[in-house]
Amino acid sequence: MGTPAATTRGMTEHDMRNLGAWIVDALRSWQDPEALERLRRTIETYCLRFPVPGIDTSDGFPLPRIAAGATAATVRRRAAR
Hints:
Elements: H1 3-7, H2 13-28, H3 33-47, H4 72-80
């Protein structure tokens, strides 16, 4: 995680504060799947306003969904497909 990934997408200092608050929210809610799902939807919607250069998001979020509670190994296996 770092600011270059966010600033490349056009995010500002205000957006960085939102990102930080969401990280705190996720850490505080780590055992609440419903809260994490609400947070995921909020972040996904917010990030669609800041497209990644070179990635077409005109049809919605371009990345496959990762189930709540997925382990790092699960994420790596999906990425390797």
